[in-house]
Amino acid sequence: xxxxxxxxxxxxxxxxxxxxxxxxxxxxxxxxxxxxxxxxxxxxxxxxxxxxxxxxxxxxxxxxxxxxxxxxxxxxxxxxxxxxxxxxxxxxxxxxxxxxxxxxxxxxxxxxxxxxxxxxxxxxxxxxxxxxxxxxxxxxxxxxxxxxxxxxxxxxxxxxxxxxxxxxxxxxxxxxxxxxxxxxxxxxxxxxxxxxxxxxxxxxxx
Length: 206
Description:
It contains six helices and ten strands; from the N terminus they run E-H-E-E-H-E-H-H-E-E-H-E-H-E-E-E. By secondary structure, the chain is of the alpha/beta class. A ten-stranded mixed β-sheet has the order 1-8-2-3-7-4-6-5-9-10, with helices on both faces. The mean pLDDT is 93.
């Protein structure tokens, strides 16, 4: 049964954020809001969390997981970025974008694309997510909360609690967030390739 956390959207309660972070460190799988839509998140090195996300979403091993980072300095520890790509990403963060880039050795192999050795990274523009990332001190391993057969992600905390109570450890609710997932830009080949058009404006990458 998933624990339900009601978090203020503008002034997240530090004690509650601390409890959520502690549960993630203890290998919890949580549903949490972002600036695009709800996501599933777990500890960076959690094999159990990865397996559970794959099961819930019915994902194969070619799916790009995303490291949700607090800031650009943290993001830079996990992916390799050249100068041109650096400028493009810096100008777009924080925001509703996921960038696919070559992974560094800091990224566990089980998170990397099996052939390309890439990983997704993003910096969200969301008060609650940022508070949680600051408390954790490391990225959240994440995937959009889009269930198999559905066209849109889930948007309400109570609805997620009701639907996924038996497979999640916690649901973080700070009010409704968007229904559009992030825009995904693949920079692994050096040039910007738009993989998915979502909440982020794509004009600067075209």
